[in-house]
Amino acid sequence: MAAAIGSSISFTSPLNTNQGVSKISNMNSVSLSINVKAFRSLSLRSTSHRFHVSCAAKPETVDKVCKIVRKQLALSDDTSVTGESKFVALGADSLDTVEVVMGIEEEFGISVEEESAQTIVSVQDAADLVEKLLSKDSSPSA
Amino acid sequence: MASPSRLEVLSLFRSLLRTSQKFTDYNIREYTRRRTIDAFLQNKSISDPVSVSAAFSNGKSQLEVAKRQAIVYSVYAPDVKSIMEIK
């Protein structure tokens, strides 16, 4: 129990400093508040611009990108395509990369710029770029 | 004309694909896309700088043609979509 309380303190205090540990009175509320704080801090982490987390892209986005890559390169179902796969490692040349980027543009309805398109080397890069462009479109621009 | 760099060639490829997306007619859109991919794949392995420059300038003039035609066709865009576009 003490270990659980200790872990909750270290996990949540940097993000929710106003949520005092003093609220926790019995063991039931400890487990509940850990869950609530865990979810809240997760959502804070994904939307906050202060934190640059490497796994910023949602899994559905990565999945869609993987599907596009798989279709473009005509990969068999047993070749693994993960977030970390580089296009070159999957057997794509630069023309294939351009086509994949065009496919991604069409799928997500975004427009990728030249310089950004040239820096994409892995599936994760593409998914992150998609997320960035989608959030820029949906957020109210100044 | 100096031999085009790799980035220029890729940029031309991208421009051609983007222009092909602008066509309102399904058939022409698909044809332009297919043709550019085939042409670039076919010319992928030429190493002689003269042929590379010739192919590059050919591609650029085709890009101009495609851009003009996309605008002209959009004026006479059909109201009814092709059956292939209706999912």
Summary, kept brief:
Chain A is mostly helical and 142 residues long. Chain A has six helices and no strands.
How would you explain this protein's 3D organization?
The complex is a heterodimer of chains A (142) and B (87). Chain A has 142 residues and is mostly helical. Helix content of chain A is 58%, strand content 0%. By secondary structure, chain B is an all-alpha fold. In chain B, 69% of the residues lie in helices and 0% in strands. Chain B has helices spanning 6-21, 26-42, 49-75. The longest helix of chain B has 27 residues, at 49-75. The relative contact order of chain B is 0.18.
How would you summarize the topology of this molecule?
The complex is a heterodimer of chains A (142) and B (87).
Chain A: H1 2-12, H2 27-47, H3 59-73, H4 94-108, H5 114-118, H6 123-138
Helix pairs in contact in A: 1-2, 3-4, 3-6
Chain B: H1 6-21, H2 26-42, H3 49-75
Helix pairs in contact in B: 1-2, 1-3
Which percent range fits the helix content of chain A?
55-70%
What order do the helices and strands of chain A follow? HHHHHH
What radius of gyration of chain B results from the CA coordinates?
A: 15 Å
Most residues in contact: chain pair: A-B, 11 and 13 residues
Average pLDDT of chain B works out at: 89
The number of distinct helices of chain A, counting runs of at least 4 residues, comes to: 6
Write down the secondary-structure element order of chain B. HHH
Oligomer: heterodimer
* Biggest sheet features of chain B: none
Q: The biggest beta sheet of chain A, please?
A: none
Structural class of chain B comes to mainly alpha
Radius of gyration of chain A using CA atoms only: 20 Å
Please state the overall shape of chain B, judged from the principal axes of the Cα atoms.
Answer: elongated
In whole angstroms, the N-to-C terminal distance of chain B is 46 Å
Total count of strands of chain A: 0
> In terms of structural class, how would the helical and strand content of chain A be classed?
mainly alpha
Kindly state the percentage of residues in helix of chain B: 55-70%
Which blocks of ≥5 consecutive residues of chain A have pLDDT under 50?
A: 1-38
N-C termini distance of chain A: 48 Å
Measured by DSSP, the beta-strand proportion of chain B falls in under 5%
Low-confidence stretches of chain B: none
